[in-house]
Amino acid sequence: MCGIVGVLGAHEAAPFLVEALRRLEYRGYDSAGIATVNQGQLARRRAVGKLANLSDALVHDPLRGKAGIGHTRWATHGAPTIGNAHPHRAGRVAVVHNGIIENFRDLRAELSASGMAHETDTDTETVALLTEFHLSQGLSPRDAAERTLARLEGAYALAFLFEGEDDLMIVARKGSPLAIGHDETEVYVGSDAIALAPMTDRITYLDEGDWAVITRQKIEIRDAAGALVERPTRIIQIDAAMVDKAGYKHFMAKEIAEQPTVITNALDAYLTESGIALPEPGLDFRTLDRMSLVACGTAYYACMTAKYWFESLARLPVDIDVASEFRYREPPIPDRTVALFVSQSGETADTLAALRFCKGKAASVAAVVNVTESSIARESDLVLPIHAGTEIGVASTKAFTCQLVVLLILALKAAQDRGHLSDADLAERLVALRALPGLMNHALATEEPASALSRKLSEARDVLFLGRGAMYPLALEGALKMKEISYIHAEAYASGELKHGPIALIDEHVPVIVMAPRDALFDKTVSNMHEVMARGGRILLVSDQRGVADAGDGVWESLVLPEVDPFLAPILYALPAQLLAYHTAVAKGTDVDQPRNLAKSVTVE
Ligand code: F6R
To answer: 3-235 adopts what CATH topology?
Structure first.
């Protein structure tokens, strides 16, 4: 989604703004721009496509000035053109915006009636026009911005810059995060702290509804009611090296390879000598009758896997929902229900809205997040960090397996609290869990054969994934990874569901990837594989040595993983699913880390 940066500095702003935008590239964008004020003169440069195009524009037509704002735009209202790129300018004001102004059509009609015509298709231009309208009524920049903010409906992070004001920036946050970084002489603004990491680690996050008047010497923050407020300044540890590819060709490759390490970090955070320790205030599953798990995309598939664990291990009924459906379905939330939201970014608009719907209704609201400063974390009663470290690749990989690990630990805790797992059985499961990073290292050793198979997959137009039991959500995740980065059409089905329709798709051109460890359900999956092979379908079996041996003849290709305790298989088998998608995308030459049309953090609904 869109990225915002800003600076009131002691040096030229343009190089900082472009560099900071580069650090936000991972969020996904299709145009970019910056504006500066130089000796009172407001000016801007914008370009469509990658940041290199903006840099080129700045080489040909440089921008001077030590105060500036910048933006990477992920188009919502209006095509990705120069005209629609931010910053938007109206008279004496320039604005960058992340989010959607829902009442922009009404505002635009009002402004047109006052003779202020719009030039672009965007909702953001309306914010600039409205502020210029207020300036033309004689208001100061501060009062004009305040008056404008009071009229806006929807979600936004905004930064304003004004002609004639070399030492003023006004920013606001409602629904989209905004971080202010500072040192002795300079102030920085960013959609997330990653953008500001090389400049400062002292970060103040605006709260929901806050807006701030910033000069180099003073940051004055007000809440939605207009009262002056203090927000805490935190020291954020974002090492520049963490957002470096570390010699890998893509962030996604690096993040896949990091999984044994980050899973160890997650295990260390939750497992103690004596068992499982949750962060305060914890959860007592003896007082709960039901769980409601809500998320989007990959995080939703983590929830779907967790349902198998909570129900089979802890005998705890679980509802799972895609957040965009849940929020408008208005489901009843029975007493003694914990509502749990899973999100890597912690900013996904639909998940956040679903969380707000549950507040005050559910017995407790818990969040499984990677970004612990995020809105979803801040609004939850219990925060369960996944310890994946910064994830830059748009396709979620290490965050998925870390989400799974945290959810599995929670399911084991539920099983123990509810008397379905003895201390001895729990200890045995935890030993198996502790061995997972070692098994992951072995699974990563399949990279070479996975890469060779991927070259064949890259020729396919359609790919099917099959899985049974807790491997079914993983099949869905495998198909999502494949389609989002390789652009190959991929679908997933529960193995037993194939003959109820999808088998009509089978022919020799459609590879069918079967995720099936040699577990209690394996024989049933083999029957389904034979149904495919009998119709000329090509099976790529991902299994262990025994599984591959027992599958019999006729399998097209196989990928062999180490044997694993069945309850851990969905986590281990995520790795070959990621590797197959990654290498297929590499073979096709797509933009792996920033696939077309996708954004890392989906802050609009
Ligand atoms: C897919 C992917 C997305 C996200 C989804 C939710 O690889 O990354 O499907 O999982 O947009 O994002 P978060 O977890 O940030 O809420």
So the answer is: Glutamine Phosphoribosylpyrophosphate, subunit 1, domain 1 (3.60.20)
- Tell me how far the alpha carbon of residue 170 lies from the centroid of ligand 1, in angstroms: 31
CATH superfamily of 245-421: Glucose-6-phosphate isomerase like protein; domain 1 (3.40.50.10490)
Domain-wise residue ranges, the chain: 3-235, 245-421, 443-592
Residue of minimum CA distance from atom 10 in ligand 1: 298
Q: Which atom of ligand 1 is nearest to the CA of 399?
A: 14
- Confirm whether 245-421 and 443-592 share one CATH topology: yes
Find out whether 219 and 204 touch, Cβ atoms under 8 Å: yes
- 436 forms bridges with which residues in the sheet? none
From residue 65, alpha-carbon distances to 38, 68, 542 in Å are 4, 7, 57
- Average pLDDT (77-81) is 86
Half-sphere exposure for 387 (CA within 13 Å, toward CB): 17
The band of 242, judged by pLDDT with boundaries at 50, 70 and 90, is low
Residue matched to tokens 């497992």: 271
Does the CB atom of residue 396 touch ligand 1 within 6 A? yes
In one letter, which amino acid is 532? V
Least Cα distance to 464 among 501, 435, 422, 439 occurs for 501
Neighbouring C-beta atoms of residue 522, cutoff 10 Å: 18
% pLDDT > 70, the chain: 99
Task: Tell me the fold of 443-592.
Answer: Rossmann fold (3.40.50)
Query: How long a stretch of residues is the chain?
Result: 605
Ligand 1 pocket test, candidate residues 298, 582, 602, 605, most atoms within 8 A of CB: 298
Among candidate residues 259, 249, 181, 240, the one with its CA nearest the CA of residue 4: 181
Average pLDDT over residues 14-28: 91
- 146 alpha carbon, distance to own chain's centre: 31
2 assigned to active site: yes
pTM for this entry: 0.86
